[in-house]
Amino acid sequence: MHTPLCDQLGIEFPIFAFTHCRDVVVAVAKAGGFGVLGAVGFTPEELEIELNWIDEHIGDRPYGVDIVIPGKYEGMDANLSADELTKMLQSMVPQETLEFARGILSDHGVPVPKDGDDNALQLLGWTEATATPQVEVALQHPKVTLIANALGTPPADMIAHIHDSGRKVAALCGSPYQARKHADAGVDIIIAQGGEGGGHCGEVGSIVLWPQVVKEVAPVPVLAAGGIGSGEQIAAALALGTQGVWSGSQWLMVEEAENTAVQQDAYIKAGSRDTVRSRSFTGKPCRMLRNDWTEAWEQEENPKPLGMPLQYMVSGMAVAATHKYPDESVDVAFNPVGQVVGQFTKVEKTSAVIERWVQEYLDATGTLERLNEAANA
After folding, report:
1. Rounded CA gap, 289 and 270, in Å?
2. Measured distance CA(191)–CA(179) in Å, rounded
3. At how many degrees (to 10) do helices 82-90 and 310-324 cross?
């Protein structure tokens, strides 16, 4: 399992692991893959702490940082500083919506801190003004060799700045049109994410999307995302012309993840149909486990989700509760995960997952080789 992209980045396997847990980034890198830390939710100061820890534990292996600058979001044309933009957006959040969110948590027995101390109305990433400081922090760490944007094409000046520092730029997409915009802007790696993927995703399925994007942007390398949870699926992705895979859901189910046993048990019990594309946490369609929080925002009589990033300025209180009371808040937690959740049966070490994926890949490609040999006999 090796592609030209592995040589470009100095890794053994073309397995890219997106995670918000620094321990997983290190474990993936040590197992031969490429760990990518999600920066959304970290202040620049907090991100610096996380990256320093990774640098101390990852050895001489490279890793990446993922940011979120959507192509469209509330306030994007305001031309304000991060503090000014935050204040403007805070004024746009209806009090009724905030109280509705607090009510969901209270009704489920999740402690709700006093007003102002529940992570509500905070803007951590989600805009160019707030993501730019995160990029600047990342570029101070030489082992960070890739900056990825989870939504939209990164701003031109940011792409140039990252390139000038000697790093590569990646960006996710859900259509050939979006992929073309990325490639034309100078993005080095296109990540084609099918609709079954966890987190922000489009509506087109992976097996349809991947070859369309590969054809659209060739020779720019493409990573396959959405539905990656086995070596067989990696073999399918490479057979469709991609140079590797971008995975996320699997890394919720490893020993190194910060998830509790109760949270991981919820993933084990879930089937692929237990996920839903919901705007209830971020304001844009995002695949996650269906629960009482996602259902509440769908009821006709209740407030509707706000646009990005306003909705996260509301749902941030639920995200904070998930971290502070992980076992008590399962029914209202933000659990972004793809339909591949239906394959999860146990928690494993990260190294065991990658070892298993490689073996499954070899078994799958070996089966194809035997079929071809038999057909030519």
Report:
1. 8
2. 8
3. 90
HEC profile of 2-47: CCHHHHHHCCCCCEEEEECCHHHHHHHHHCCCEEEEECCCCCHHHH
List, in sequence order, the alpha helices (H) in 58-201.
Answer: 82-90, 95-107, 128-138, 156-164, 176-184
262 Cβ contact partners less than 8 Å away, ≥ 6 residues apart: 326, 327, 330
User: For the segment 203-235, what is each residue's pLDDT rounded down to a tens digit?
Assistant: 999 999 999 999 999 999 999 999 999 999 999
Distance (Å, rounded) from C-alpha 313 to C-alpha 75? 13
Which pLDDT value is given to residue 118?
Answer: 64
> Contact 249/341 with Cβ under 8 angstroms?
yes
**Residues 64, 22: Cα–Cα separation, whole Å:** 11
35-72 exposure pattern, b = at least 16 Cβ within 10 A, e = fewer: bbbbbbbbbbeebbebbeebeeebeebbbbbbbbbbee
Tell me the DSSP string of 288-315: EE--HHHHHTTSTTSPPPPPTTHHHHHH
Percentage of the chain exceeding pLDDT 90: 89
Angle ∠(152,157,161) on CA atoms, nearest 5: 110
Helices first, then strands: H and E counts in the chain: 14, 11
**Angle ∠(47,48,50) on CA atoms, nearest 5:** 65
pLDDT in tens, 108-141: 999 887 666 666 788 888 899 999 999 999 999 9
Query: Angle at the Cα of 87 (from 86 to 93), degrees rounded to 5?
Result: 90
258 three-state secondary structure:
coil
User: Residue 37 and residue 40: Cα distance in Å, rounded?
Assistant: 9
H/E run at residue 93:
none
Residue 135: both structure tokens together: 């990029």
Is pTM, for the whole model, over 0.90?
Answer: yes
pLDDT tens digits for range 41-98: 899 999 999 999 999 999 999 999 999 999 889 999 998 998 999 999 999 999 999 9
3-state secondary structure of 118: coil
pLDDT given at position 328: 85
DSSP 273: G
